[in-house]
Design brief:
By secondary structure, the protein is mainly α. The protein has two domains: 60 residues, Arc Repressor Mutant, subunit A; 146 residues, Tetracycline Repressor, domain 2. The protein has nine helices and no strands. The protein starts with a helix and ends in an 8-residue tail after the last helix. Keywords: DNA-binding, Repressor, Transcription, Transcription regulation.
């Protein structure tokens, strides 16, 4: 077989495997959210998918691994938002504005994942919990650094950058509790308003953004 054709086949195989993993995760998210982790079996996940249990075991070694994957996705999307903003050639105010929008959107579009983590973190393996916690601390460190940059530039006015970072993270992360897709405000409206709240929390000098 020609190397190019073999590479194409491997690429297709990887895409199919990723699609199957994605379908499995989506079904598990629905069931863990509806019934709870302990009340959901892999048989139930397989039934929701319309497959047999070996289909799941081909991609996940256990229900615990599936839970860890789901729980890590919320913070992973927030970290992706952070890492997409930090390299921007922009003022600290503009970076924080863009981060606010992307961070809020990441949380609200991962609403069920974050709810599952909040309820089920006690069921995570220690190594998985520590890995996810490290990701959260990494986010907090990067946000703190951005706030310090803004303070040094005279654009943000807060006395404690780390505390402000934790307050911002807490406010945005908690939105998974009250946000409703069919509520009074659309997703875009919530994103815009919360991004402005973040700037208000650090007394941002938006005239310099």
């Amino acid at each position: 077989m020609a190397p190019q054709r073999k590479a194409q086949q491997l690429g297709i195989r990887d895409e199919v495997a990723a699609l199957k993993r994605s379908r499995t995760i989506a079904a598990a998210v629905e069931l863990f959210y509806e019934k709870g982790y302990e009340n959901t079996t892999l048989d139930a996940v397989a039934e929701r998918l319309g497959v047999t249990k070996p289909f799941i075991y081909a991609h996940f070694s256990s229900k615990g691994e599936l839970l860890a994957e789901i729980c890590s996705r919320g913070i992973a999307s927030s970290l992706e938002a952070m890492d997409s903003v930090l390299p921007l050639k922009a003022s600290p105010t503009e970076k924080l504005r863009v981060l606010g929008e992307r961070f809020v959107r990441a949380v609200l579009t991962s609403q069920m994942h974050i709810a599952i983590f909040s309820r089920e973190e006690k069921n995570l393996a220690v190594a998985d919990f520590n890995r996810i916690n490290d990701m959260r601390r990494d986010f907090d460190r990067k946000l703190t650094a951005l706030l310090r940059e803004g303070i040094e530039a005279g654009e943000f006015h807060v006395s404690d950058a780390h505390m402000a970072a934790l307050a911002i993270g807490g406010m945005v992360s908690w939105a998974y509790v009250w946000y409703r897709p069919d509520g009074r405000l659309s997703l875009d409206e919530v994103v815009d308003r919360m991004a402005l709240l973040i700037l208000d929390m650090v007394n941002a000098d938006t005239g310099k953004g």
